[in-house]
C-alpha cells in the first residue's frame, strides 16, 4: 500500500486498528475457555450445507453441540421399546469427529411425545416404568459421550406451578427426581440439568424452577445444573411482551440458583426482533447479547453458553413465530452480525 500523504497514512493506520479490533480469529469457544468457562456451543441439526458445516466444524467457535431435535422422544422411541438412533447418531458422530462436547437434549418433556405415550392407559407404576425404560435406553446408548443431559425439560408454567403433562397427572411431582435418578444410573459420568425458558426474569417461574432444584435435592438425587434457555427478545413482539433484563438483574437471577449449589448455563440462547432487521435494531440486539453474555461471564458457576443455531438461515423462530427472527450471531449468508462483535468484546472485557 502506498501512502502519499501524512493524512492518508493516519487514515490508513486508523483503518488497520479498527480492522484488528473487530477481527477475532480466536473464536467464541476459545475466548470463553481462556476466561475459565467450559464451552461456547451451538444447537445442531445435521444438514447438507457445506458453508454451515465448515463453520460448525470450527472448534475455536464451538466447543459443544446440542442436538436440536434428534434426541427427542418422538424420534428415539416412536413406538414402545422400538428405538431409532439414526438422527441422534448423526449429531454424535459430528461432535466426536470434531472433539466437541455434547449437551444431550432431552430425556423427559411434555412435548414431542409419540401418541402411544400421551394416550396410553397408565397408572403410576406403569408410567414410571415407561419413563425410566426410555431414560435407561437413550442415556445408556450414549453413555460416556454426553458431557451433560437435559434430564427434564420445561416442567413448570409461567406462574411457577407444575405443567399439566402426562407425567405430572399420573406420577405427580416425583416424576422429576425419579427421572434424575434414572439418568444418573444410566450415564453416571454426565452432568444432569433441569432446563426451561423464561427463567431469566426473576419471576414466579424462576421461583418454580428453584423449587424443582430443591425438590430433587430433597430426594438425595444428583442435579448438577439449571439451563436457562434464554429465548429472548430485543424489542416487544407479538409473542414476547418483555425485553432483555439488565445485566445486573440477570446476574442476580443466576446467582439465586448457584446459591443452591448448582451450576447454571445459557442453553438455547437467541435474541429475536421484529423482521426485517435494521441497522438500529441490530445495534440494540448487539447490546442485549452483551448483557446476557456479560452476566454469565460475571458469575463463577455460569459454566457455558449455547446458541440455538448460529445462522439466521436455519434459525427456528420465523417458522414458529412468523414475522420474528434474525435472532442469532451470523446472518443468512453466514456473515458475522454486530451481535457477534459485541459477544467477543464482552468476553474479552472480563478480567
TrEMBL record:
Broad class of the protein's primary localization: secreted
Stretches assigned to the GH10 domain: 41-346
Reactions mediated catalytically: Endohydrolysis of (1->4)-beta-D-xylosidic linkages in xylans
Superkingdom of the source species: Eukaryota
Keywords: Carbohydrate metabolism, Glycosidase, Hydrolase, Polysaccharide degradation, Secreted, Xylan degradation
Signal sequence coordinates: none
Subcellular location: Secreted
Pfam families the UniProt entry points to: Glyco_hydro_10 (PF00331)
Gene Ontology terms: cellular component: extracellular region
Any GO MF annotation of the entry: endo-1,4-beta-xylanase activity
Involved pathway(s): Glycan degradation; xylan degradation
EC number(s) stated in the UniProt entry for this protein: 3.2.1.8
GO biological process per UniProt: xylan catabolic process
UniProt similarity note: Belongs to the glycosyl hydrolase 10 (cellulase F) family.
Protein name in UniProt: Beta-xylanase
Lineage of the species this protein comes from: Eukaryota, Fungi, Dikarya, Ascomycota, Pezizomycotina
